[in-house]
Amino acid sequence: MALSVICFFQPGCMGCMEQSPINNEVSKALKLKIEEIDATKEPKYIKQYSLKVTPTTIVLVDGAVRERFEGMVHRELLESAIKKYL
Questions:
Q1: Is the predicted pLDDT of residue 86 greater than 90, yes or no?
Q2: What is the pTM of this model?
């Protein structure tokens, strides 16, 4: 089972700036890389994942979306969502 976590952001987004340190904490705690992608520089993802807001955090298992959070997500909730697939 391949697990990956992607957080889409855009420069100047206040929620994105608050989400980044949370992602770093979760990444360290779970020993799992959370990829942060600038949605404005990678517009293909906007259509692929139907992105409407930033930050949007997506948990993928074998390439399929299993969890999706639009807007800022708190550490406890993000960790809990990821742990289900570890």
A1: yes
A2: 0.95
